[in-house]
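subagent[fold] <- orchestrator: predict structure for attached chain, return tokens only, no commentary.
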Amino acid sequence: MKIFLILFILFTSIFGASNQLENKRLCKLFTFKAKTYKKNMREDAYAYQTLRSYEKRAKMFCKKQ
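subagent[fold] -> orchestrator:
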């Protein structure tokens, strides 16, 4: 039983750390995408939707860090 508990704690901490690294990576990625897309975007509804999507995901992943 103790071995199971130790393994559970070990795997939980490993996956928690990797999830935090993934959130950091995605935050950086979507922040970059939003900035570069905004510089070169067209003037139509689809472009604004895409930009809002990038900004929303950047905010979401940056908040989870």
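orchestrator: received. Logging for downstream: Residues 23-65 form one domain. The mean pLDDT is 86.
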